Amino acid sequence: MNNWQPYPQNKPEQTTDAQMKDYVVLVPNPNRINKPGFNNHAPYYQVRLAFWAGDRFKDEQMSDLNVHYYLTLPSHS
């Protein structure tokens, strides 16, 4: 079962409850080599922990993320 939500087509709600949740996001892998004739086995995406700032995803250092997909983590309480 695939629960990954495409972003920005499906955004989390702009509520305080959505901002309190934790998310796992997929961002493009910066280590991927895209050259003809090069057999690259690096994954297309990196998995990062993020939070929803109401209009965009941010990481622990408050940097904006180039998110392609996201997944809401279950509550840890």
Overview of this structure, please?
The protein has 77 residues and is mainly beta. 6% of the residues lie in helices and 30% in strands. The protein contains one helix and five strands; from the N terminus they run E-H-E-E-E-E. A five-stranded antiparallel sheet has the order 1-5-2-3-4. Strand 3 and strand 4 form a beta hairpin. It is elongated.
Structural descriptors:
6% helix, 77 residues, single chain, mainly beta, 1 helix, 5-stranded antiparallel sheet
Give the strand content.
Answer: 25-35%
The N- to C-terminal Cα distance equals 25 Å
Fraction of helical residues: under 10%
Number of helices: 1
Briefly say what this structure is:
The protein has 77 residues and is mainly beta. The chain is built from one helix and five strands.
